[in-house]
TrEMBL record:
Residue ranges, compositional bias (Pro residues): 88-102
Alphabetical UniProt keywords: Signal
Comp. bias regions, Basic and acidic residues: 33-48, 56-65
Start and end residues of each stretch annotated as Disordered: 17-118
Name of this protein: Secreted protein
Signal sequence bounds: 1-18
Low complexity bias spans: 17-32, 78-87, 103-113
Keyword Signal assigned: yes
Length: 336
């Protein structure tokens, strides 16, 4: 090989290596930017992410194994039945065991269609509300960059019934909701209330939120929660009702998660002086709302941070009739 050709090869190789290094630098920077802009949840909750994922996978494997054993037993029973002579008398049926009373389940009071909508809880005004949905994955590289689970339900995606929107090429996306079908999703039937939201007070996985919940949550001493303040298997926030108002429209929803951005912001969530949310991200949002609430309230954006609402807690007995009661929930157990 001539000296001139050798020089050309070396120069080309160096150029390619430099270009590869530059591309890798741009990729690393892009990933860092994506992580910095991540709309994530609490640090406390994210610490449980991997453990919860492993638990979910283990439960799924156990279910599959149990289903396989049932199928095998059913097949064996059929084969044994076929071998038995037809003249074999059928043994007398045994008396059914006496029914047992299941253990009491902690629940929030059920909503009664016909409530007036009146509320004595403090009113929070001019609060930025962003939109989230079950099945949303907004940062696959983050420890908790999705809505496959909530702080109160490690199996939220499955227990809800799947993607609360439209799945295209494996991606769960939101969709516009309309009054014609009660603001329900068009591609699935939810098993839980599609009118859900979150507020920045995690009373289960946030250490401060759990420690203070008995003193800062106004309904902590109600009969439904008596003696539960120290019980981490019960949430005092899950499925509580919230009244939301925007531009003359009023809708109702239930708490299903915690966030955005902050997780023990009691001054804002429970305060009586209309305090601003401590969260400074996502336009200073003080709550996330579901696609159903997004449509019901007439948000200008499907997934933005420019819509503003007024809101206040409301007792279940005061919730009026509406599409938010089509599939309502009262269970406040924590599902790990």
């Amino acid at each position: 090989m001539s000296a001139a050709v050798l020089t050309l090869v070396v120069a080309t190789t160096v150029g390619v290596g430099a270009a590869s290094a530059e591309a890798e630098t741009r990729t690393t920077a892009a990933r860092a930017h994506a992580t910095d802009s991540n709309r994530g949840h609490s640090a406390q909750k994210s610490e449980k992410w991997q453990a919860l994922q492993l638990q979910a996978e283990k439960k799924q494997a156990e279910k599959k194994q149990a289903a396989k054993k049932r199928a095998e037993k059913k097949q064996a029973d059929k084969q044994n039945a076929a071998k038995k002579p037809t003249s074999t008398p059928t043994p007398p049926a045994e008396a059914a065991p006496a029914p047992t009373t299941p253990p009491a389940v902690a629940t929030t009071p059920p909503a009664a269609a016909g409530g007036s909508g009146a509320s004595s809880y403090p009113l929070h005004t001019g609060i930025v509300a962003t939109t989230f949905w079950v099945g949303e994955i907004f940062d696959a590289n983050a420890e908790d960059g999705s809505q496959m689970l909530s702080t109160y339900d490690a199996n939220w995606f499955a227990n809800y019934g799947g993607c609360d929107g439209v799945t295209t090429k494996g991606t769960c996306s939101t969709e516009k909701r309309v009054a014609g079908n009660g603001f329900f999703p068009t591609s699935m039937t939810p098993k839980q209330n599609p009118f859900y939201l979150d507020l920045p007070y995690d009373d289960v996985n946030d250490k401060t939120g759990f420690a203070n919940r008995g003193s800062v949550i106004p309904w902590a001493n109600q009969a439904a929660y008596a003696g539960k303040a120290g019980d981490a298997s019960v949430s005092l926030m899950k499925n509580r009702w919230v009244k939301l108002m925007k531009d003359g429209q009023t809708c109702y929803g239930q708490i299903a998660d915690a966030g955005p951005g902050e997780y023990h912001d009691s001054a804002y969530v429970f305060g009586s002086n209309d305090a601003r949310p401590a969260n400074a991200r996502y336009g200073g949002a003080g709550m996330d709302v579901s696609p159903a609430l997004n449509g019901c309230l007439g948000f200008a954006e499907l997934d933005g941070d420019a819509d503003v609402v007024d809101w206040q807690f409301v007792e279940a007995a005061d919730v009026p009739a509406g599409p938010w009661l089509t599939v309502s929930s009262s269970d406040n157990r924590v599902i790990n």
